[in-house]
Amino acid sequence: MDAANESSEGSPFILLGLTTNPSQQRPLFMLFLVLYVAGILGNGLIVAAIQASPALYTPMYFLLAHLSFADLCFTSVTVPKMLANLLAHNRSISLAGCLTQMYFFFALGVTDSCLLAAMAYDRYVAIRHPLHYATRMSRAMCTALVGTAWLVSHVHSLLHILLMARLSFCASHQVPHFFCDHQPLLRLSCSDTWHIQLLIFTEGAAVVVTPFLLILASYGAIAAAVLRLPSATGRLRAVSTCGSHLAVVGLFYGTVIAVYFQPTSRYEAERGRVATVMYTVVTPMLNPVIYSLRNRDVQGALRKLRYWVFSLVFFSLP
Asked: Which residues contact 95 (CB under 8 A, 6 or more apart)?
């Protein structure tokens, strides 16, 4: 490799962020700060409520607690850096920092994907096979599903990062994104990237498209069972719940597939940034509302948690 390339590879990347227009930066900062805080509080409260309430020690809430924890970490990988860059003049990030951010982003994103599929399977078993629910969704089964989700996601992410680390970046180091993502970085590489793109379309499809298809199949079976309910009110409530679940799932998987499952040559930075915001900020914020905050059991656990925190603070005062 020549000296010019070595110098270029040693240079930090510059994250251009959501916009380079100074007049838009502060409004965007306030907007995404509110969304980020809402997502952190929502997911954090769900994890705390489930851990503090023995009544929620069930397979559904066990999976939900892991989803909320993964969402909390997922948004924290990218959003704080994005917020800082909206106010900072120096938007640089080293190659090591870039790869580290990318590693945790993909690991947590795939964990989300797998956990959503596990939750859909849980609901399928509960509705279609209620008599066998306790045996099919035992504690050991739930632990195996969660463990598999975390293991597969980190193996997937590690494989991608090892390949990305071998690339040479001899073009401009300005990344038209608010974090280090695959497609923008591949556009900056002067190496042959066909093997990484092939990996995205094969192994990547296995951890994204397959769970999505399993979720659709599970909800299809659930819908068939719901339509046989004798109560019209029960059918309406179940359809409303399933519809909201599918809307968020569709938003998450639809934007992920739109961003990653296309040739690098067809990637458009502006459209990619908008789609990425949907699954990095919006859906992690919506998941607590859709899956739990409207649930009476969770609402009761949150009230008990609030009283417990209030009592702890009150009695600890001098």
From this structure: 9, 12, 13, 169
Rounded distance between C-alpha atoms, residue 35 and residue 125, angstroms: 34
Q: Give the pair of three-digit tokens for residue 270.
A: 């502006």
Alpha-helical regions (H) of the chain: 3-10, 22-52, 59-87, 95-128, 133-136, 139-164, 182-188, 194-201, 203-226, 232-260, 269-277, 283-288, 296-316
pTM of the full structure: 0.86
pLDDT tens across the length of the chain (318 residues): 444 344 345 578 899 888 878 888 899 999 999 999 999 988 988 888 888 888 788 898 899 999 999 999 999 999 999 999 998 888 889 989 999 999 999 999 999 999 999 999 998 888 888 888 989 999 999 999 999 999 999 999 999 899 888 888 876 788 888 999 888 888 888 888 888 888 888 888 888 889 999 999 988 888 777 777 676 776 676 666 677 788 888 889 999 988 888 877 777 878 888 889 999 999 998 888 887 656 677 767 767 766 555 444 444 445
Q: From its phi and psi, is residue 180 left (phi > 0), alpha (psi between -120 and 50) or beta? A: beta
